[in-house]
Amino acid sequence: MKRPDLDRATLLEARGVSRLYGPGKGCEAIDIRLHRGEVLGIVGESGSGKSTLLRLLAGMERPDAGQVVYHSAAAQGRDGAGHEGELDLYAIGEARRRALLRMEWGLVHQNPRDGLRLGVSAGANIGERLMALGERHYGQLRAAGQDWMGRVELDPRRIDDAPKTFSGGMQQRLQIARTLVTRPNLVFMDEPTGGLDVSVQARLLDMLRTLVRELGLSVILVTHDLAVARLLAHRLMVMRRGQVVETGLTDQILDDPQHAYTQLLVSSVLTP
Ligand SMILES: Nc1ncnc2c1ncn2[C@@H]1O[C@H](COP(=O)(O)OP(=O)(O)OP(=O)(O)O)[C@@H](O)[C@H]1O
C-alpha cells in the first residue's frame, strides 16, 4: 500500500524494548517508530517474537527493559505524561493502560472469539465500545451498529443475532466493526486473516484495506503472511529469534530483501 505523506508525527515508539523467555525467545532491544496514518507490519516465521512484541506495544505485557511511549494528544499534562503528551506506557498505572486500550486504541485478535462477546447480539457488540466512550442514546447506538455492519459487509438485518450464529469470517468482520466503530487512534492487529479459508481471507483483506485507507488508520499489524503484509503495510519490520533483522518500505523489503533471512523468507513464500 502506498504510504501517506500527510502527517508524519510519531504516534508510538518502542525504545530498546526487551522481554526474553529464553535465549532467542521473545523480543530483544527493539526500537520502533510508528507514524500517524501508517501501517507497520511485523513479519517473521512462527516463534520469531511477533506476538510478544505486539503484547509489549499494546500495554498487555511489561517489558524486562526499555520503554514504550505513546504520543497522545489527550494525555498532555496528565499523570505519567511527559513532554508534548508523551505517555510512558509502563510508568502509568494498570487502570490507565486498560482505559487506553478501551478508549483510544483497538485490538483485532486472530480469533474473533477473543474479541467478541458471543452470547450478546451483534449490535450490542458494536455498541459496547461506543457506550464506554459515553454514548447512551439507544437510537444512535443502533444506527451505528447497522451502519458498521454494512461497512464490514454484514447484513444489518442480523443486528439482533448473536455472533455465535455467524460463520468464522462473519465473526471476524464483526470484531473489526466493534473495534473500528470508535475510530481508534491506534489499532493493533494480530494475524487478522489467520485461521480463515483462503477465499474468505481474500475478501476480508480487501475490506480491511479499504477501511484502513478510508479511515487513515494507524496500525501495528502482526502477520506471518507476506501477502497480507504486502497488501496492508506501508513499512515492514522483519523479526528473527526476537530481533529485528531488517526494516524498510514494504515494496523494498519484499522486492529487494537485503538480509539473508529475509531473502529466504521472501523466496520461500513468494516464488511458486
Ligand atoms: N508467556 C510465555 N512464556 C514462555 N515462553 C513464551 C511465552 N510467550 C512466548 N514464548 C516463546 O517466545 C517465542 C516467541 O513467541 P511469539 O508467540 O512471540 O512468536 P510469534 O512470532 O508470534 O509466533 P507465532 O506466529 O507462532 O505466534 C517462542 O519461542 C515462544 O514459545
From TrEMBL:
Q: Which SUPFAM superfamilies match?
A: P-loop containing nucleoside triphosphate hydrolases
Q: What is this protein called?
A: Putative phosphonate transport system ATP-binding protein
The record's listing under PANTHER family reads: PHOSPHONATES UTILIZATION ATP-BINDING PROTEIN PHNK-RELATED
Give the Gene Ontology MF terms in alphabetical order: ATP binding; ATP hydrolysis activity
Keyword entries, A-Z: ATP-binding, Nucleotide-binding
**Quick check: keyword Nucleotide-binding in the entry?**
yes
Record carries keyword Electron transport: no
Query: Which residues does the UniProt record annotate as the domain ABC transporter?
Result: 12-266
Which organism does this record belong to? Answer: Halomonas ventosae
Q: Which InterPro entries match?
A: AAA+_ATPase (IPR003593), ABC_transporter-like_ATP-bd (IPR003439), ABC_transporter-like_CS (IPR017871), P-loop_NTPase (IPR027417), PhnK (IPR012700)
